[in-house]
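Objective 1b of the project was to move from sequence-level analysis to a structural picture of ligand recognition. The entry below was assembled by the postdoctoral researcher (A.K.) and checked by the PI before modelling. It contains the amino acid sequence of the target and the SMILES of the bound compound, flavin-adenine dinucleotide.
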Amino acid sequence: MLRARVRVVLVGAGHAHLLVLKHAGALRAAGVEPILVAPPTFHYSGLATAVLSGALPPGRALLDVGALAARYGVRHLPAEVAAIDRQARRLHLSDGQDLAYDAVSFNIGSVTACGGDLQGEGEAWPVKPLSGLAGLRRRLEDHLADGVSPSIVVAGGGPTGFEVAAALAGRVERAGLSPRVLILRRSMPDWASARALGRLSAALQRRGILQTSGEAAGRRPGEVLLLDGGALPCDLLVMATGLQAPAVIADLGLPLSQDGRLAVGPTLQSPGDPTVLAVGDCAVITGSPRPPAGVFGVRAAPILAHNLAALGTGARLATFAPQSRWLSILDLGDGTGLALRGRVWSLGRGALMLKRRLDLGFVDGLRAASGEVLED
Ligand SMILES: Cc1cc2nc3c(=O)[nH]c(=O)nc-3n(C[C@H](O)[C@H](O)[C@H](O)COP(=O)(O)OP(=O)(O)OC[C@H]3O[C@@H](n4cnc5c(N)ncnc54)[C@H](O)[C@@H]3O)c2cc1C
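Corresponding predicted holo structure:
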């Protein structure tokens, strides 16, 4: 015997929620009414740098969220959640609507953590939201159309900083020019083995992608100002200075991890409010922190779907343990990639071929499910 219908609002069309849509029939059978609140377009991060480098056309990394939701009979509200009233169990949406919920699941990804002075229009290009990368690419192409290889500074020495620097260099190379790209990093990178990073740095250096220590603190026309008082030539400043949870997560008034993500237990529920669940970059399973990567949301999706259905049937909730080793592959913008899994790594064309196969498989699977006719 099913309980009364439970309304579950899925906030954000992140990796996990896109896959949960496929379970909509099972959710309804369990007495759960799923509703999706998310912007109309999903920008798939696995192909973001391929589009930035010009290796793939811009539309290749996009997914029509409304079409996918419609395919599985899920009501989609094309908006963002701006605020939440947990006492009243109501969500306030960016389009002014209010929406009641019985349970709410957040899969809203992350935003770039960059200094307040560097967020102004035209000052710097944050790597997230990914929708902003189209503007960065256009600005770069304006320079290239004048036959100029602009001086590009990418602030951030993490894998995203390296990947974005290599992608921008790839776009310059595709225009027949020599890249002038500088990775500005706070400290020596340690996100891969010293040998892997050494090989990567040497390969990038041969293409005109150099590295230096420092921190971006401000902008002047043609220059980036550094925290230590120095300045560097810079036509385009890109901020890859780390990812953090969107502000709405802190506004929930629930326990957070040290880095500001929503702390959840293995059932993906907040310990402070079991009607609030979260997955992906915006959350962390207490005791099992992981870096931002789409794969964790993908793996969590079936557990999340099970647990949302259990809210309708009263069944026991399942637990999720994120994997302790995972594959990540950087697209280096020149037909090569760097694959990393634990301390094992591989640099070359094979790594990128594998990445393309996995990423195109993921996004094309969803596009086909949404009814889109795939041309290539
Ligand atoms: C340039 C770049 C390249 C990357 N490449 C890779 C890669 O190759 N592989 C990889 O695993 N990771 C990569 N990452 C990291 C990756 O972006 C994230 O780890 C991953 O997207 C997180 O997935 P998610 O499911 O948590 O959320 P996301 O995929 O970020 O999706 C969250 C969704 O929620 C929506 N949203 C946000 N706020 C709200 C709101 N308030 N209300 C409603 N909806 C909202 C967003 O529009 C977005 O569609 C890359 C990151 C960058 C910046």
